Amino acid sequence: MHTLYSNRLFCIGLIAVLCAAVFAIDLNVPLEVADGVLYIIPVFVTSRLLGAKATLWTAVVCSVLIIIGLNYSSGGGVMWQALDNGALSLIVVWITAWFTIVRKRMEVELEEKGEETLKESEDKFNKAFYASPDAVAITSIDEGRIIDVNEAFERISGYPHAELINKTSLDLSLWANPDERADFMKILQEQGRVSDFETDFRTRAGEIRTCQISAVIINIEG
Asked: Domain span at residue 106?
């Protein structure tokens, strides 16, 4: 909480410095120059660091500074030029604020949609994994350590879930012929998948069963 508060204070301080810097430039530049458009910098920075509400407040502050600058800037130019440049600066500031807010909302919506799509994909995977009538296991590619199995795998192997997780197939002697596992892993690593590899499988009770194994390499984050 303290870190978030400190970061927010730092962002507010940075934006204040940017506003002050642009205001100082505005005061020292002749009125005929539309330097007020530089206020889009703190507006844009606010949108990236603090969100929509803070962006609106920054746009308001910048608008006030633009108006003040019209009255206290150094001489040069005629009044209609000053008013035109001030109006231009205000328009640019508010267009920038509107654009950055809309863009930020779109990014948030896309992120939320992506998270929702990911959750739906995970739900579909979990349903297919746990409800499959075939024995299915998720293992690490490097050492074959079991990450998860479905109920069909428990039933066919005879091992309860707790005795399988974090064990390797070699720890449990699941492969009746370990050399066949080496051949299986070689194909999997070279081709990225294996289909209908026939081998002998040893159950918890020591029974040898002939089965066909298929596998594919997938990347799982987290």
From this structure: 2-125
Q: How far is CA 158 from CA 14, 22, 132, 136, 202, in A?
A: 63, 74, 17, 14, 10
pTM for this prediction? 0.53
How does DSSP classify residue 205?
T
Query: Could you report the per-residue pLDDT of 8-54, keeping only the tens digit for each?
Result: 888 888 999 999 998 888 888 776 677 778 888 999 898 888 888 88
Quick: pLDDT tens for 53-86. Answer: 888 999 999 999 988 887 776 655 556 666 777 7
146 and 169 part of one domain? yes
In a domain, 189, yes or no: yes
Q: Residue 12 to residues 17, 29, 93, 101: CA-CA distances in angstroms? A: 9, 26, 18, 17
Q: Please tell me whether residues 171 and 194 are part of one structural domain.
A: yes
